[in-house]
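Q&A log
Question type: sequence-to-structure
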Amino acid sequence: MSVEKNYDLVAIYGNNAGADAFGRLRVSEPQALHDGKNIFGDDPKFWASTRNVVYGTLRTVFEDAKAVLDVEAPATTDDYDGRITRQSFSYQAGRSQRTLLTGIFNVNAYDVASDGSAVLTYGLGDSMKYDSTYGKLPDNGIVFVREKINGVENTRVLIRRKRATLYNKPISEWTDKLDGKGASKITVNWAKAQITDLDFEWLGVGRLRFSLNIDGQPVPIFEINNANNTDIDASPYMLMPNLRVFYGAFAKGGATESSRAQTVQICSSVQSESGSTFLGVKRTLRRSAAATSVGTTFTSILAARIATDKIGTIAKYFGGGVFTTDTTNYEYAVVINPILTNNNETWDSQYLSNVEYSSDINDAVTAAANSTGIILNAGFASSTNQGRTFAKEKFDSALNLGHDGYDNPDEIHLLVRTLSGTASFWGLLDIEEGY
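Response status: OK
Response body:
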C-alpha cells in the first residue's frame, strides 16, 4: 500500500509558492547572480578559504567521482574550515532575492567525541569573523546551523546584524519542524542531500522565507516578518544585503583525526527575481605621473580595489589604456591579484567612490609560478604605436572584484614590460562601481 505525500498545505508558502518574497508572481527567468557548481575542484577564482587553524589538519577535498567538495575540520579545539565566494551579489532593492544551497549537512558523518562539538554552517554573509560557538559568523548575514553538542543534535537559523545575532531560531520554533507532524508531513533526513531555499526582501525591513525543496516542492519551515513589526531600535535586520555564499565546518573536542566535522558542498545559486539592473558609476582611474625606468620584467604601474571599509560594493573592470612616449616595443596585461616583489602600494581614495586606487607603484612581479595572477587582457604594442586602448566589449562578463574571508580585497593591476631596454609609462583603468 503506497502512502501519498501530503503537500496540501505546502503550497501555502508565504501566501503562495508561486509568489516571491514581495508577494508578486514569480517570473520564469530570474537572473542568476551566482552559479556555483563544483565539477573541477575548489575553483579559487570564485571561492576563497576562510580558516582558523589551531591544532588539526583542515581539508577541502574535491571528490571527482561525486562532483562535490568535502569541507572538513578535525574535532580538535577551535579548528574551522570554510569556503566563501569572493564576490558579493548585489541585492536589487524592491526585487526578491532567492538563494539555493545544496549539500549534505550531516553532523554524524564522523564519530564526534561525546565531550566534543561539531557544527556545520552555510548561508549568506559578508565579512567572516571567528566565533567560539559556530566557528565563523558573518558581520551581517543569514546562517543555517547544524550542530551536535555533547551528543544532542539541533538545527537553527541565525540572522546577523553588525556582528550581533538578531534572530536565533532553533528548529523547535519553526512552523514545520520536519518531524512528520507538520503541514508537510515530511520527516527530514539530514544524512541525505538537501536543497535549502531562502527567499528574502530587504529594504531595511521585510520578509525572509525559509524552506527545503523536496521532490520539486518548496517545503516551508518558517518565515520572519519585519515590516509593520519593527521599531527604530531593531531596524534594519541586516546592514548589508550584498552578501556572499559560504559553507563551513567547525569542531572542537575529540582526540583523533577520524573525529571530524564535514560539510558536503554540492552546488549553490543566487537569483534576483525579475532580473537585475546594475546601477552604478563608470570611473577612469589614471596614473598621471609616469612610471619611469620600467624594464623587461612585468611591473605594476596602476591598481584598483574595493576599499576595505566598503566591503559589499559591487565593482567591475571594463577597460583601460597604456601609453609611452618612448619608441619601444612593449607588452601590457590587466590582471587580478598578481604577486609583487615588494607589495608596497599606497592606496588612495577618490571623490564619492567606494573604490581605492594606487598610482605610485613601480613594483615588479615576482618570478614565482603563477605570480602574474589571473590575466583578463594582454597585448603588444610596437614602437610605432605608442598607446593602446583596451577593447571594452571583451569584459562584459569579467569577474567582479571581491575579497577573501578576512577583508583582503581583490586587486586589479595594470602591468607593463618592455621587450628590450627601459621606458616610461602612463596608464588608465576603467572601473564600474555600484551597490
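Response note: The radius of gyration is 24 Å.
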